[in-house]
Specification:
The chain is of the alpha+beta class and 270 residues long. It is built from seven helices and 14 strands. Helix 2 packs antiparallel against helix 3 and helix 3 crosses helix 4.
């Protein structure tokens, strides 16, 4: 998977809606899959998402006590095994925390969304869901990414388990042990682009598309504030500055003056 493919997945993430039958079993609601766009900029838990996380934990614990519900627990987390097509072999409190705090993998967000869809019709357990009427509405409020969540998830999906993220870890911790790029010719696909100031930010180079003597052109993937579009891929020019790098976003082949950026470090992916 490329970073750009991961962006595309977050921009159109399918979540199955689950229902409980009259017999108490859980199944996928026929022909009811919602496509959500995880474009909110979310970084860490707040009082609302802490409440949602607690409600999910309480709901799964209650369902695990009901014979035939399909929910079981092994002490580490919960499994949901009575689904028609796609069981949830394990969902933990940490998985739910990731999904609600801007650090969730696509699967963590999908599974959390499926559990939330089960809770919505249940007055006892939906009262912590802030009055949402649908999984689409819940997703628009609670599912999103922050910048180091996006790059961290990409690294995890590519097999780098050392970069699994917990909420509120600073971007700059990913610099440690990486090769610092010193010139334009050093920059490669998947290099990490940093601003370690305040606020700090991290992005990942999807691919270098053109090299010129004084600049490179590339596509960069990142998660940004929703007014800039959430998880996204854009074309950029990178120029060497006296200290760090100057980045200029491309739009229809032209440099955009309204979105210049300074990056103080570019480092290798590995």
């Amino acid at each position: 998977m490329t970073p750009e493919e991961l962006v595309s997945l977050y921009r159109a993430l399918p979540i199955d809606t689950l229902v409980r039958t009259d017999s108490g079993q859980t199944q996928i609601k026929n022909n009811f899959r919602v496509i959500v766009e995880c474009k909110r900029y979310i970084s860490g838990l707040n009082s609302y998402t802490q409440g949602v996380r607690g409600a999910v934990r309480k709901y799964l614990a209650a369902m695990a006590k009901i014979s035939g519900s399909g929910v079981t627990t092994n002490g580490e987390g919960w499994a949901l095994n009575s689904l028609d097509l796609d069981p949830i072999p394990l969902i933990t409190d940490l998985n739910v925390t990731h999904a609600l705090s801007g650090k969730g993998t696509p699967r963590e967000i999908q599974n959390t969304g499926r559990i939330l869809s089960l809770m919505l019709p249940d007055p006892e357990h939906s009262k912590k869901l802030c009055g949402a009427g649908s999984i689409t509405e819940l997703a628009s409020w609670f599912f999103g990414m922050d910048c180091n969540g996006f790059t961290g998830v990409y690294q995890v999906l590519e097999g780098d388990s050392t970069n699994a993220k917990l909420p509120n870890i600073a971007c700059k911790h990913q610099i440690s042990g990486k090769e610092l790029r010193a010139s334009l010719t050093d920059i490669q696909d998947l290099d990490l682009v940093f601003n370690t100031g305040s606020p700090d930010h991290i992005a990942i180079i999807n691919s270098v598309t053109s090299r010129k003597p004084d600049l490179i052109e590339c596509t960069i993937c990142e998660a940004r504030d929703p007014k800039f579009g959430g998880a996204q891929t854009n074309e950029w020019k990178i120029l060497k500055a006296k200290s760090g790098w100057h980045l200029y976003r491309q739009f229809e082949g032209k440099s955009v003056g309204v979105d210049p950026r300074i990056a103080d470090k570019i480092v290798s992916y590995y």
